[in-house]
Design brief:
Chain lengths: 480, 331
């Protein structure tokens, strides 16, 4: 098996598969950790039990998502060496230290305080517990900081010297390496994406419970909070994405050419191709629906500005157009749909129908997983757009792989696919089960004992027993 | 002392921290089926639920740190032990999610308990075999691994693999002696006694086998004056083993765990005697594999600032969850 396959292609598929699966979990937990910190902070500030209930509701979901993020993340830290050993050897002196900083400043912080966050409320008291929650949230952000710095350096490498042994060596300034040209844009765009992803999950869950029972105060609160995020942050994200795109145009023009479907140069204003079918053999976009000169307007802020196309790039340096063209449109489309939901929610607030407008709730429910689709599509856009290079313009992906036989890479890929689909599908199912239970007063925290009531699936007391979420359940004050 | 030596010790420390800290987590996973379904298993798992994630992070520091400080070693060792690394990672996937999943799905708890044990066992066995594969030698040409993808499978690596399983079981059992009470604790004492015997027998077997793998190893252990220093390692091991058995017989609660950690520390020292100054034995020294000084210095600043903090808040997290697990978990 696998003897006839190309080991390089298998290694690429394996990395794409494991990193895409992994990215889903941090995209959720970065935002959710911050949301939990906000909820606990509001609880401490206002003393209102509803915030504690929501905190406990979401922390059970967070625990499952975080565990999946951890185990899939450890895989990533070894993928560099197992499948991309030449890359590791060559780039290790530059990117290795950044990843070491990620471990030292982020992973330990998250993991060290997670236990207290999940199980420690009654042991350390409210304030220290809140501090632990904040540390976990901070850790998720710091992790994003370092790993996106690494990725950005691979996209826009600067501040290095070439060693005699072919290694990339750090130059005199680490600041230049860490804050490489695409990093600030990528960091802002990705972290906001994580917040929006979480907001739409929270909003979708709130909408689901509002559809079943519009009087559920807890569902109202989470839906309202999520819709504020959508209304305020989606426009910021579209602006940040635009800035990121301009930065990409400056540093990685062929990626933008592929995103735009510009096979040809346009000396006097390039059209914005809304849809079409890119045909790389014929080097044109078939059935294109386009707005004349709009691409030049967006990218150059001038209707008649010339824009170079892929005809200016040697064929063996072009990224694959079809994938990027589509993944980019999916991401942008979802971004505008998010903007639309946010605007709709503002209209609903003005009309005082936020909790009763079922079509809004249905739309929010449909949009609940949209953030995940958008971040994966965005990730594909930026990663495939860097091809055929792993370090942009300097090291080809085909020159970076480990000296492994196709059967070894193929067998491990098959193992990852089977295990990930099995384990993470089940985990996602557990998360959906937790979400299907309505949030209610006296929400139980993360319970870890056979004694006493176990609310493992979050469905006791069930919706029929506790329709308004108003019956207090005694005996678990202070537990999380 | 140059930076490369400092970094060799930092990586060694990270690996050691991982081995002893996740070692007892994995050991509990390995021993899990011998505990009664219900309260005993819940308590065994609760005793590590708040700390396992932090413990596992040392593995990321060991791997990530190796890539950063000794990129050439990382680039050679990982392809050479490829199937073992993949098996370890997948084992850790099952082990890690079982902590959450078993509580989410009582009807399939038996399945996740099995995943917990199987994952722990596979991870432990793989880690031991990776060590064995490293010690028995890796073919490298230029800057790349040049062997085949099953070189790692030999009687020696199976011995180191099983030895690691036994050692982790000892750590897990002595941890549970410390954290459990009553019948469950009595069971943990019995497990600790048996796994201590298995660990020492296998440790002796590996120690006697290793010097005959390679003349260099033999010389490092038995040539004068090395012998005078190196011989302290088995001597101290015998002393610690005596106190371990005595502690178990006297029903001491905390001491057996710390003595087991001491045994692992001596194992690490023995490993140092065999390998120094190579990172890929007989092929690549730590200086061959080292990242440039700028990389080492930049990271050393980070380590100097963060490592004391990490150790402090990790210690605090352990302190928060000190004492017996009790019947209510940690609530």
């Amino acid at each position: 098996m696998f003897e006839t396959f190309d080991a390089l292609l298998l290694a690429r598929i394996q990395f794409a598969f494991t990193v895409s699966f992994h990215f889903i979990f941090p995209a959720f937990s970065i935002g959710l950790a911050s949301y939990l910190a906000v909820l606990e902070g509001l609880w401490l500030k206002t003393g209102k039990a509803i915030y504690l209930d929501l905190f406990r509701y979401w922390i059970k979901i967070f625990a499952v998502a975080f565990a999946m993020g951890v185990v899939s993340g450890i895989v990533m830290s070894y993928q560099f060496g197992t499948n991309w050993s030449v890359f590791s050897d060559k780039a290790g002196p530059v990117i290795g230290p950044l990843m070491a900083y990620e471990v030292l400043t982020a992973f330990f912080l998250e993991a060290g305080f997670l236990g207290v966050m999940l199980f420690g409320m009654s042991r350390v008291g409210k304030k220290l517990h809140f501090a632990a929650t904040c540390m976990v949230a901070l850790g998720t952000f710091v992790s994003a900081f370092w790993i996106l710095s690494v990725n950005s350096w691979m996209q826009t490498p600067v501040g290095f010297e070439m060693g005699a042994n072919g290694q990339f060596l750090p130059g005199p300034s680490w600041w230049d390496i860490v804050f490489n040209p695409s990093f600030p844009y990528r960091l802002v765009h990705t972290v906001i994406a994580a917040y929006l992803t979480t907001a739409f999950v929270v909003g979708g869950v709130g909408a689901w419970h509002l559809l079943k029972d519009a009087s559920n105060g807890h569902a109202r609160k989470m839906f309202s909070m999520a819709m504020w995020m959508a209304a305020l942050v989606a426009p910021i994200q579209i602006f940040a994405g635009d800035m990121h795109g301009l930065n990409t145009l400056e540093h990685q023009p062929q990626k933008v050419m592929a995103m735009e479907g510009h096979y040809q140069s346009h000396p006097d204003g390039a059209p914005l191709i809304l849809f079409g079918i890119p045909d790389s053999a014929e080097k044109r976009v078939k059935y294109a629906i386009e707005i004349p000169k709009a691409s030049s307007l967006i990218l150059k802020h001038d209707l008649n500005a010339p824009l170079a196309g892929l005809d200016t790039i040697p064929d063996d340096e072009e990224p694959p157009v079809g994938i990027i063209f589509w993944s980019f449109r999916i991401m942008v489309g979802i971004g505008f749909a998010m903007l639309g939901i946010g605007a709709w929610s503002l209209l609903a607030r003005m009309r005082r129908k936020l909790y009763d407008w079922h079509w809004l709730h249905r739309a929010a429910l449909v949009m609940a997983p949209s953030g995940f689709v958008a971040v994966i599509a965005g990730w594909i856009t930026t990663e495939v757009g860097r091809q055929p290079y792993v370090i942009y313009n300097l090291l080809r992906t085909s020159d970076a792989a480990s000296p492994l036989d196709a059967p070894a890479v193929g067998a491990s890929l098959a193992a990852f696919v089977v295990v990930y689909f099995a384990v993470f599908s089940v985990g996602t199912w557990y998360i959906l089960k937790l979400m299907s239970g309505p949030p209610h007063t006296g929400e139980a925290g993360v319970k870890r004992t056979e004694k006493g009531p176990i609310r493992t699936a979050g469905i006791t007391p069930g919706p029929t027993q506790n329709p308004g979420g108003s019956q207090p359940v005694p005996g678990n004050e202070g537990e999380v | 002392m140059d930076l490369t030596i400092i970094w060799a010790f930092i990586i060694a420390f990270a690996v050691f921290a991982y081995v002893v800290m996740d070692g007892f987590d994995l050991g509990i996973g390995i021993l899990f089926p011998t505990f009664k379904v219900g309260l005993e298993r819940d308590q065994a798992m609760n005793s590590i639920a708040p700390v396992w994630d932090g413990n596992e992070t040392w593995l990321v520091l060991g791997g990530g740190g190796l890539m950063a400080a000794f990129p050439l070693a990382y680039a050679i060792i990982l392809p050479a032990t490829y199937p073992l690394i993949i098996a370890m990672l997948l084992g850790l996937v099952f082990r890690g999610v079982a902590f959450e999943f078993r509580w989410r799905d009582p009807r399939h708890r038996a399945l996740w308990d099995f995943a917990f044990t199987a994952g722990s066992l596979i991870a432990a066995l793989s880690q031991g075999m990776i060590l064995g594969a490293l010690l028995q030698g890796i073919d490298a040409t230029g800057r790349a691994y040049s062997g085949s993808w099953f070189d790692w499978l030999t009687p020696y690596t199976l011995l180191t693999g099983i030895g690691t399983v036994a050692g982790y079981a000892l750590l897990g059992a002595t941890w549970l002696v410390w954290k459990l009470e009553g019948e469950a604790q009595a069971h943990a004492y019995r497990l600790a006694f048996r796994s201590a015997i298995a660990t020492l027998v296998l440790l002796a077997a590996v120690s006697l086998y290793t010097p005959f793998l390679d003349a260099d190893y033999f010389d490092r252990w038995f040539a004068m004056p090395n012998f005078l220093f190196a011989s302290q390692v088995p001597l101290l091991t015998a002393i610690l083993a005596y106190f371990l058995f005595r502690g178990l017989a006297k029903k001491q609660e905390a001491a057996p765990f710390w003595l087991s950690l001491g045994l692992f520390g001596l194992g690490m020292a023995g490993l140092g005697v065999s390998m120094w100054p190579y990172v890929v034995p007989s092929q690549i020294t730590i200086w061959d594999a080292a990242a440039p000084e700028r990389s080492q210095m930049f990271m050393l600043v980070g380590v100097a600032i963060t490592l004391p903090l990490i150790l402090a808040y990790t210690a605090w997290a352990y302190w928060v969850f000190r004492g017996k697990v009790g019947e209510d978990g940690y609530h």
